[in-house]
């Protein structure tokens, strides 16, 4: 896809999230919006995957460590062809294959089960090292939240990844400066995020996490680095794309009223 098409797809994925949360009356819309452009760039431009062969051994892997953002990941999988779009509207239903956090055995196209925060970088590192051992060329991408950086396991994995020179591992940090209980700066104080990853021996890039050209360029830079993993610090806005969600952290987990649903769809370029 060209950049303009990717930008339109990112709006479509956001509209899908609004539809899912409104119809099923549950879900995390705002954290999904902050990673929507990253997810779009990966699934529709970067990842070497084949919906007809979801278990293809040579596919690239994506680990959504901040698993509560899964509505936008499910939307990407559906739009990419892993399962019908209509199935999105079973989000969190009993026996649905679209659980409230990613559960790989149930959902076609998922590479990892996540939801307990802090595990994704370790999972991704295991996949990256497995590729080396098996002499595979696939790459592994992990998306973690900035509030999630308060989990010590992330830094254990970061240290190990640098020591192992796992250059086929790239971590996106969704730096929206919010977590469920308030701002990240108030609660867990991970700043300066870039300097911390550098101190652990990573190649570090800082970008606008809503700029698809910057996301794509950062991925290419990461691919060119052969002696260490890369952390891409993405400055994002929680709720990006819908005016009344920006700056209102209650949208971390909240359901749209009919009026809010219509306004959100309209602002995202739909027919609400």
Explained architecture:
- This protein has 272 residues and is of the alpha/beta class.
- It contains 10 helices and 7 strands.
- A 5-stranded parallel sheet has the order 1-2-3-7-6, sandwiched between helices. Strands 4-5 form a two-stranded antiparallel sheet.
- Strand 4 and strand 5 form a beta hairpin.
- Helix 1 runs antiparallel to helix 10.
- The longest helix has 22 residues.
- 49% of the residues are buried.
> How would you describe the shape?
globular
Number of helices: 10
Structural class: alpha/beta
Strand order in the largest sheet: 1-2-3-7-6
Question: Main β-sheet: number of strands, strand sense, barrel status?
Answer: 5 strands, parallel
Strand content: 5-15%
Order of helices and strands: HHHEHHEHEEEHHEHEH
Overall pLDDT level = 97
Distance between the termini: 26 Å
- Low-pLDDT stretches: none
Name the helicity range.
Answer: 40-55%
Number of strands: 7
How large, in whole angstroms, is the Cα Rg? 17 Å
Any key phrases for this structure?
two-stranded antiparallel sheet, globular, single chain, 12% strand, 272 residues, 7 strands
Task: Kindly summarize this structure in a few lines.
By secondary structure, the protein is α/β, with parallel strands linked by helices.
